[in-house]
Amino acid sequence: MADWAPVVVGVVLFVLLSPGLLFELPGMQRHVEFGSQRTNGKAIAVHSVIFFAIFTIIILALNLHIYTG
């Protein structure tokens, strides 16, 4: 039985936390921009740290598992 939780959580968080898709922190002209479809290096770094923190909390601290088969 394979544990699909890391894959599912990773894909969902990747889509939601893509810089410029829903929001961009920090933005090009403001601290937070919504739906700008642009990005910069600082935003990529911040979104990567947020992704890692949320992913770690969900997978390790909440002990989430999704089994198939």
UniProtKB/TrEMBL annotation:
Instruction: Mark the transmembrane ranges.
Output: 6-23, 44-67
Domain of life, per UniProt, equals Eukaryota
Q: Give a Pfam family name.
A: DUF3339
Q: Which keywords accompany this UniProt record? A: Membrane, Transmembrane, Transmembrane helix
InterPro entries with a match to the protein in the record: DUF3339 (IPR021775)
- PANTHER family recorded: OS04G0387900 PROTEIN (PTHR33128:SF78), OS05G0103400 PROTEIN (PTHR33128)
Q: What is this protein called?
A: Uncharacterized protein
